[in-house]
Amino acid sequence: MRPILLSGHERSLTQIRFNKDGDLLFSTSKDKIVCAWWSANGERLGTYAGHQGAVWTVDVSPNTVLLATGSADNTVRLWNVKTGECVKTWDFPTAVKRVAFSPDGSKLLAVTEKRMGFLGTIAVFDITYGDGDLSNLNTQAEEPSLRITCTESKATVAGWSYLGRYIIAGHEDGSVSQYDPKSGDQLENVQAHEFDHQINDLQFSPDRTYFITASKDKSAKLIAASNLAILKTYVADTPLNSASITPKKDYVILGGGQAAMDVTTTSARQGKFEARFYHKVFEDEIGRVRGHFGPLNTIDVHPAGTAYASGGEDGYVRIHHFDKPYFDFMYEVEREQMRK
Amino acid sequence: MSRLGNNADWADDDEYDDPSALPATQITENKDGTKTVVSYRFNDENKKVKVTRRIKSTVVREHVNPQVAERRSWDKFGLEKGHAPGPSFDTTSVGENMIFRPSTNWKAQAAEAEKNPEQGSMKDQLKDKKVKCRICSGEHFTARCPFKDTMAPVEEATGAGDMGADEGAAGGLGAGSSSYVPPHLRGKAGGAAGEKMGGRFEKDDLATLRVTNVSELAEEQELRDLFERFGRVTRVFLARDRETQRAKGFAFISYADRGDAARACEKMDGFGYRHLILRVEFAKRST
C-alpha cells in the first residue's frame, strides 16, 4: 500500500469528502482554500477560492454538480464543481461547522455554531440544479426552508438518514438526536457518549440505515438511524476526531490523536497519530496505519470501498488504495460462512 | 540563399534568438515500446534544466459511469488553471510503501516487528561465524589456545620445519648461504643453530594425543591418571566451555616420549570412560 500524499494545504485539514462515484476527493482546511483532487492519482483538479476564514466543512451533491462549504467567515458557499465558481453565498450570524446534502441532493443542511448570544442551529436549504443543462445554478433559495434551534446543547455534526427521513445530529454534550426534516421537531435524543464529551464526527453507512459517531470520550459508536439504538462500541485509547464505515469489507476506520493543543508536548509515538481499523461486527482492533505527524482530523472512505483518505493536523491528505491483504482478511467464522 | 538573408550570422541559430525560450520537447519512440521525452524547464533558481523521462505507457481499460468519464475531460481551474495534465510535483507525492495486513493479534505482531529488525540482522551477521583457533583449529580464540606455547600456528610450523632442514648450512659463517646468521648463533653446536624460540616445542606435538568423545563431566586429573599409566604426561588439556565450565568433549594429552604416546594411543582408543568410548589419535598439526 503506497499512500499518495497531497500537500495542497498550508494548515490543518478540517474535512475531506469523496464524491458519490469516488473519482474526486474534496478537502477543506483552515487555510481558506478548498481543493478538488482526482482520487486515483492525487492530481489536483482545482481550487475553490473565496472564503475569508477557515473552512470547516465540505460536502458534494450526489450528482457531483454542486459543492457546499461552510466556513468560519459565517457563510455557506455553493460552488460549481466543474468550474470552481461560487454560485451562491448564504450568510449566518455565526460560523458554520458542518454541511451535508440529503441523499437525493434536493436539500442541504448547515450546522451553525453557538456564539455571541446566538444559539446553535441547523438550517435546511432547498437546492435546485438549474435548467436541464445545469446552466442556472445560481438561482437558489435565499432563506432556509427550515431552521432547527438546539436549545439544550449545540449540534456539532449532522447528516441525513436513509431517504432523507431524519436529520441526525451529534451534540457537544455527547448526545445524539433525531429530527424530523419537515417539521423540525426533535423525535429522539440519546446520550450515546459520555456526558460533555463532544461528538466530532458522524458518518453514515452506504445505505444510511446506521451511522458511526466519533467522540472525544475515546470511543466510536455504531448507532441505528431509525431508533438511535447503540449497536456497537469501538474503544480507542485516544480522543477520536473521525470515524468512517467501509463498504465491501465490514470494517470501521477511526482517526484521532492527542488534542491539537497538546501535540507539541507529546512525541509522535505517544500521540497515536494512526488510523485504526476495527472489525465492524466483532469490535476488535485489527490494524493500524501510520503516517501522519499530527492527529487525524478527518477520514473518508471511497464509496466503492477500495481506498480511504485521511486528513491530518499536519496539513497533509493521504490517500491509501487498499491492496490484497485488506480484502483477504476474514475471521474464522466468516470463512466458514463463505464455505457454506 | 534566402535562408542566409534571414539569418545574418550562422551563429545566430534561431534557438538563441530569445535566451528565455526553451527548446522544444523531443519525443522519441524506443524499440521496446517505451517513449523517451526530453523536456526543458526553468528550476527555482531560474536555471534551464533538461528533464529526460522514459515513459512506458500501458493502457488500462476501465468501465465507468458516463458521468465519471465526462468529468475526466474537465479542465483544471483555480490555482491549477493552465497546468499540464498529470499530478504536479509540488502538491502530490507518493509516500513510502507500507504493509497493512489486518489481523486479530496485530498488536503482538507489531511489537515483534519493531523488535526483530535489529536482532535479525545481528543474527544473520553472526550466523556462519565461528571462532577458530589458528593453532589447534579448536573453537576458541588463538590468544586463548592452550597450545600457543607448545604448537606453532599452522603456517609457521611448516616454516620452522624448513629451518630445521637446512640448519647444517646455517651453522657455518653463512658461506654459500644468503641468509644472515646473528653473531650469537654462529658456530654454536649443531641443533641449537637456527632454532626458533618455540622450536623446542615443535617435537612435542609428535607426542601429543588428541582425545575426543570425552564426557562432559570429565576431569583433567582423571584423564591424567588414566594416561599416566603409559608414561610421563607433560600436559593435559581438557577443553571446557567458558561459561558452564563443562568439558567440551575433547582433550589433548602430551607425553614426554613419543613411544609412550604411541602405546597410549593404541591402548586407550576405544576405552570406555564415563559411559563414552574414547577416541584417541595423534594430534595433527593442521586440521
Automatic annotation (TrEMBL), chain A:
The identity of this protein, by name, is: Eukaryotic translation initiation factor 3 subunit I
Naming one, the record's GO cellular component terms include: eukaryotic translation initiation factor 3 complex, eIF3m
Gene symbol?
Answer: TIF34
The answer to whether keyword Protein biosynthesis applies is yes
- Compartments where located: Cytoplasm
Q: Where are the WD repeats?
A: 6-37, 48-89, 289-319
- Keywords assigned by UniProt? Cytoplasm, Initiation factor, Protein biosynthesis, Repeat, WD repeat
Q: What does this protein do?
A: Component of the eukaryotic translation initiation factor 3 (eIF-3) complex, which is involved in protein synthesis of a specialized repertoire of mRNAs and, together with other initiation factors, stimulates binding of mRNA and methionyl-tRNAi to the 40S ribosome. The eIF-3 complex specifically targets and initiates translation of a subset of mRNAs involved in cell proliferation.
TrEMBL record, chain B:
Note down the stretches annotated as region Disordered: 1-34
Statement: the UniProt record of this protein carries the keyword Manganese: no
Would you tell me the Gene Ontology cellular component terms? eukaryotic 43S preinitiation complex; eukaryotic 48S preinitiation complex; eukaryotic translation initiation factor 3 complex
Major location, coarse class?
cytoplasm
Location of the RRM domain: 207-285
Q: Which Gene3D superfamilies match?
A: 3.30.70.330
* Keyword terms of this UniProt record: Cytoplasm, Initiation factor, Protein biosynthesis, RNA-binding
Query: What does the UniProt function comment say about this protein?
Result: RNA-binding component of the eukaryotic translation initiation factor 3 (eIF-3) complex, which is involved in protein synthesis of a specialized repertoire of mRNAs and, together with other initiation factors, stimulates binding of mRNA and methionyl-tRNAi to the 40S ribosome. The eIF-3 complex specifically targets and initiates translation of a subset of mRNAs involved in cell proliferation. This subunit can bind 18S rRNA.
Regarding protein family, the annotation reads:
Belongs to the eIF-3 subunit G family.
What protein does this entry describe?
Answer: Eukaryotic translation initiation factor 3 subunit G
In its UniProt entry, the species of origin is given as Penicillium ucsense
Species classification: Eukaryota, Fungi, Dikarya, Ascomycota, Pezizomycotina
